[in-house]
What does this fold into?
Amino acid sequence: MLNINSALYIGRDALMTQQLAISVTGQNIANVNTPGYSRQRVNLESTVILSSEGPVGTGVKAKGIERIYDQFLNANINEEIQQKGRWDAQSQSLQQTEIVFDQSSGNGLSQNMSKYWNSWQDLTLTPSGYAERNALVASAGDMAADFQDKYKYLDQIQKDMDNTITNGVAEVNSMASQITDLNDSIVKMEMNGASANDFRDQRDELMNQLSEKINFTASEDSAGRMTLTLGDGNALVGIPAFGKLTTAVNASGYKDIVWDSAPSTSINANISAGNLKGWMEVRDSLVPGYKDSLDSLAQKIIEEVNTIHAAGQGLDGSTGNVFFSGNSASTIQVNPDIIADVNKIAAASGSVSSELIKGDNTQAIAIAGLQNKLSMDGNSATFDTYFNTLVSQAGGDVRNASQNLEIHALTVSEMDNYRESVSGVSLDEEMVNLVKFQQGYSAAAKLVDTVKQMMDTVINMV
It folds into this structure.
């Protein structure tokens, strides 16, 4: 049978337990707006001892502070954040290409090409006209400069992406280091029997942030240590970690992502999600595709125009002159000899007599006709159609990235809302708990006071 002291101990333990429950409730209320915070709950357990009369209750104790958390839901959220990060990076980066292919200002490449072909058309009407020849050189120069500007802008986007990737790798390493430190703190605290719930929340929040940057899989061992494994199978965080990420310049002059412990082996192909994936897709695939298309267009214009022009004859009787120099979008320009002397523009046929040169427009008509010739895509598209298709493709890539970003952002939002319903703090619920534990604390205090009065009675009897 329990004595009067046992009742005092029951009251004492009840006071301490209810006080702990109130503290945890206060922690929940204080962190109602803290990103990534998981609601905590004190698990209460009745205590018993065995006596000659059987099991006898001895009060209550806190079995532990539980973190309300769904690890599978959080893993799914990380996967969606990884995909969202990929399309977010791609969407923001590709918006810069819209400037390159914007035709709404009236000064785009499509308009400059039209002005160039129209200048040849004007020359067919007045093949010896000095003003028409100067206008042709000016419009050709504008078109060539537009090609070069667009190519340079796209090239700059790649360089910007390269720098962004380098900064992104540094951010990944920084977050990995913080997660490693939290791993150590969690293991140390839980090894000593303390609760590391707040550290676990911080670690999960960092993992969410890391998910925006790069894809990984996570696993937790029995000690509470989290291992994060990248797509190539090597651990970024764990015991032991394979190393830190860094960059190394490849044959194209851009930076591959590598391990500092294996600097000659690129892991680009193993990065399938996160910002790094989106940036690499823009730098290594999408923008190079646009540049190749611009090169193909410029090369074909140079080739077609120069072939006809070289076969013609200028007002000065010269032949064999090319109209454009260069062989790509980045190098196309009007032949400096023609800029210096517009009489070298070969509007006339190469076989026409010197007496008829001024009135002959054979070559000018042929070059003006190139505007409607099926010269591109295996002779299935005109220059204008080919460029308009490129503009549509670039716009389609922007829309595709934006749509995928919207889909994954919505999914992340829905999963976050579900996570909040599971792990988030409800002020209404916490206020109910606060009143409940407060009443429990008051009742325990009343029990202690009652036991005290009983003890006083016994003492006074003596």
About this structure: The longest helix spans residues 130-191. Residues 74-95+161-285 form one domain. The chain has three domains: 4-68+425-461, 74-95+161-285, 100-153+294-395. The first strand starts at residue 40 and ends at 51.
